[in-house]
Sequence to fold (73 residues):
Amino acid sequence: MTKEEKQMEQYIKDLCKEADVDYDPEFGSHMDDKKFNKLLERDLQKQLDYMVAEGFCDKVGDKYVYRENPVDL
Fold:
């Protein structure tokens, strides 16, 4: 398994743990796609909120704009 595959597997394990869903290494998670997609969206929103709070991007309407020079805050 490549480093990227291991990172993705850990990411999915963490999402499953957060959702209180069993994870089977051989078969993956035991949740429907709709629930899994909702978890992914929520996780992405947390990351975007963090990036705004730290000054790496700005929220403009419903879009996020990356700052080229976040140190120039």
About this structure: The helical segments are 3-18, 33-53. The chain has a mean pLDDT of 77.
